[in-house]
Amino acid sequence: MNFSKTSLAAMRAAMLGGAAVAAVFAPVSPVLAQDTTDDASCADGADSSACDSSEGVSEDAIVVSGTRIRTSEYDLANPVVAIDDEAIQNSGVTNLTDFLTEAPALAGSYNSNDGSGSNAGIGGVGLNLLDLRNLGTQRTLLLIDGRRHVAAVPGDSAVDVNSIPIDLIERVDIVTGGASAIYGADAVTGVVNFITKRDFEGYTLRAQNGISEQGDGNSRFVAVTVGTNFAGGRGNIAANFEYGHDDRLLLSQREEFGPRFRAFYDNQDDLNDDPNVPDRVLAADVNYLDSSPISAIDTDFDFLPDFLGDGSRYIPGTFLGSFFESGGSGTPVSTYGGEILPEIDRFIGNLLFSYDLTDDIRFFAEGKYARVDSASAGQPTFDFFIGVPTDNPFIPGNINDPAVNAFDPLGIVLVTGRDNLDLGRRGEDNRRETYRGVAGIEADITDTVAFEISYVYGQSDNTVRQTNTRYNDRFYAALDAVDEGEFLNGTPNGNLVCRSNLTGDATSSSQYVTGAFFFEDYPTLSFTPGANSGCVPFNLFSNQQNQAALDWINTTAVDTSTIKQQVVSAALSGDFGDGFSLWGGPIGFAVGGEYRKEESSSNPDPVNTTGLTFGNALFPETGSFDVFEGFAEMRIPIVQDQPFFYDLTANGAVRVSDYSTIGTTFTYQGGLVWAPVPDFRVRGTYAQAVRAPNIGELFAPSNQTFAFIDDPCAFDSRDNGSDTREANCIDLLQGLGLSDAEIATFTGDAGTSLPGLSTGNIDLGEETAKTLTFGAIFQPTFIPGLILSADYYDVKIEDAISTPSATTLLELCVDAVSLDNAFCDNIDRTPVGGGFDPADAGIVRGFTLQPQNVAAFSTKGIDFSARYRKQTDKLGTFNFSLVGNHLISLKTQGTPGAEIVENAGVRGDPEWQVNFDFNWTLDNINLNYGINFFDKTLRYSRATIEGDPDIVAPEYLKIDSKFVHDMQLRWTTDDNMSFYVGVNNIFDQEPDVGLTFYPVSAVGRFFYAGIRISGDQLGF
């Protein structure tokens, strides 16, 4: 490959905050000037003094992410981790997020496991979103060449990593710590900057195919990149195309997730809560105790099933608490499992163009189109407590008998529960299309000062097809079947029809349907009752249905959304030369301004806005904001080459932003680098960063939502929270009119999924984060090739915007210092009296989920790394890399004054993470071996374990550590053709007991092979 470099290209990178730096041989490594062997500084035509062929040391100023000033990495005060393109290819991973999560700072990112089946929220199937420090995807800023990228999630700022081309990446920089002063809002926890190849000349072709050991989970990838110079080298044009496909992987494809799958359930031998007996035990063959795919039927009014829909007796299993039993006739819980991975197809095309208008002025432009198709299915629809009229011809005869069915005199047969697998699993078939264009001019003003102005336009068009969406009104009309002759004249004729077809209205069915749906609750229906309605009877007591009935009941709801982003940026950067310098050299600077506008609109399918479908009623969401910003940055080389002051450099940055939504914000950053000797450097930064509320947090309408809750005020949960929970719960329940005896036995069991609302909050303000980092780099000259580094970080976020789940909302209400808080105001409980069922007293009957500026987050830890590179004459080149993190604390506080929750060491937040890589190259052979590790984590929250230390047996309190080994072997021919094979998860580590993709994915051992062909010239 030839990558032509000019001074303008380097200056352009300086303006963007990222240019070509050294090739990084390990997957994750600190960025250091010592790694510049064979990099841009040593390219043809570069100053030979920039290269040290023995060790590849360059003292030339280059640019890394985290600054807009062209400088040496030695002067960079904040830690940056870099991942080069070779490391990505050595991993064999074709999903960038799966690879990047091996970096400790990104381990909590949202990957394909999170975006599959029942795990994904509405519109979330197939998404891959980065999350620095596990503090939220909305607090991680993703950049392409230092510029913003349009979001993929309506109302949010999160970018789908699937839209980024893998083979066009030259390097990925991970800047941890607040970077708002450099890059603007959303960089509260840091920046992930994807640096792409520039001035590409020649061609590369790569193809790869992989499959799991069990013959599933296939992954295919093809990429082509071509480029050429023209006009005597003044111009360059390059194009890139990539296609990637990941097969859908179902839980049902793995035997271990079938009926024998074990998970934790209530121990029925510990009802008196003996502290020496675990509260929860492992159980297999778990079923729901009150439902069946062919209906579970209650005939004696105890709300427990006695028969199945085929007329056979319902055989109860061993009760496991709540709605579960081991064995028995109910629906297996394993059938509800969704998918391990969604199906994903990625099509990405990029076109890059640049042209030197003069020796000092360059025009550049780039365009991208990305289409990501993803599909996954989750749970089916389900129903509880349906009263079916006794004249329904599908009811088994032995059940439709007053002597058997106590309900028969009421004219109904009671179905306690049905899991509608015959209606198909609800799923999503999504398409996300991304358009992005960049154009700009960069110019050398003097030998040391450059100017750039650029414009970025991005648009994301999303189509979410919700498959097997059930019309509730049609379902209930279809299950209310009658024999036409018997209904009209009392003489059966065998013609089974919907009752509403004969009566011409639907309200006649409401007296029979005692479940969650009543026709008269809705002003309109999705059909017109009568002979021409199209209604086809549905047999509630069988799983063999008339296809016409399924087609009439189900529909595909299509939600659409559009996100637009426009950014105009201009900056002047360089140094003041000898006219304004200190003992360490000229003072560097960058100053500029930026205008950004963000727009987001989502349009749910009309069937979803009516509330007639199974699920949440959604409403259109539209919002926008713009922001004007000014920024300045300085690098001050105070002194160099003095005793005990080999280098002392300070830097600082400020940014003022004026938002149309929240007004003016101010961010700043300051840092210092001190090297008493060449081998050892100390660095530190302090920054204030902000995050403005996104469009969804501000403008989201009141959308319907449903949730199953665990009430923290239940008698057996009041000791599992803060010190104030029990007293607050007693005060709350007493205020509703419950007696002391009722409070003592209060379970909070609503018995069903509860309706609620989710809405935005126009009164939100910005979040503010204070970030401190300090560390050291040791590179002994007496051990060439060795680099050691360690950095401590401390991040505190105040006035954090938090939207809790329904259960968390309840916990925040009673775990606060008092009941006088915003969370309690958003909960509706049933009072005693007032015409309500006395059995419902105190139970939650509604809630509103709304973001508030009330939370606080903080995290502390140490990032550390060790790298060693050794070149030998006969044995080749050896590279060792160890990158790790020690998480000291990760705390959340729901409201001011509430109890602080420590999450470090809890599932998803390991205290120790280490990524080790060994790479060996000898002639045309390259071997890469990697190990990814994190330690054991608690299965339950610390508060739960402290309040209930015997929740499980001691050996299950912690989830097994992650210890995954990967290997790749590559052979390259003399004409630049590479063949490689590899295996990931060599020792086939599996998810821990009771889990499906933690600490590792359930994919298991994975094999792949590929080929890469490259050339310096296109040949025409």
UniProtKB/TrEMBL annotation:
Pfam families per the UniProt record, alphabetical: Plug, TonB_dep_Rec_b-barrel
Protein name stated in the entry: TonB-dependent receptor
Keyword Transmembrane on entry: yes
Subcellular location: Cell outer membrane
Transmembrane segments: none
Domain TonB-dependent receptor-like beta-barrel: 467-986
Keywords: Cell outer membrane, Membrane, Receptor, Signal, TonB box, Transmembrane, Transmembrane beta strand, Transport
Membrane topology: Multi-pass membrane protein
TonB-dependent receptor plug domain: residues covered: 74-191
